[in-house]
Design goal:
The protein is an alpha+beta fold and about 230 residues long. It has one domain. Helices cover about 25% and strands about 20% of the residues. It contains 5 helices and 13 strands. A 6-stranded antiparallel β-sheet has the order 3-8-9-10-12-13. The protein has a 3-stranded mixed β-sheet with strand order 6-5-11, with no helix packed on it. A hairpin with a 7-residue loop joins strand 9 and strand 10.
Length: about 230
Amino acid sequence: MTIPTLIAKYTEKQTVSQLTKVYSTLASAYQMMQAEYGTIDTWGMNTPTNTGEVDEEGKPIYNHSAQNLISERMRKYLKVAKQCEVGKVCFPGASYTLEGVKRNDANTVATNTGDSPVEGRFFLQDGTYVSFGWWSGSYGGIYVVLPKGKDSVLGKNRFYFHIDKNGLRPYGIKDEPETSTRSFITCDPSYSGVASGQGCAAWVIYNKNMDYLHCRDKLSWDGAHSCKEAE
């Protein structure tokens, strides 16, 4: 194999190891948090992040209280090295989809109109960046950017998890409906849209590979789970 191929294979193995570790860490912390405070459906967090309301200037009013509360309670069980500051760039790298489309230039923890600022973003001691996503009223999400990445790329070093009263699980699980942006169907370099690469976490964690980068059309949860298996 060529040197670039060897480097790519090593990077993918490292990603599998890092993501598996951070998933275990977050799932454990989430479980302990709910053991102490009760399942999150009992916390009274009925207001979704997107309230559907607008201010006097017509700008959307967001409510980040649920994100902040979950983050605050869960951080008790995590080794946090750095808390991101409101209004400042926290993760300086650009964000891309697996298809290669830029989503944004940098991640700023901003203050939003009509509500408290987003506080649920921080770095773990191993360098993993953790960000709590929007709350729907009954479920939400968390994404991570693995250490040492200059930019974040969905499906390569940026991965998503779903959270609800039943716990924390990776995006892209077998039983997720294909109509959902959490589905493995989005874990495809040729999938267009902002969700391209969003449903890759479960594949990496459970199949221990990133072969969707090489032979995506041959892979499925009900079929081949690796390029070698597909041969």
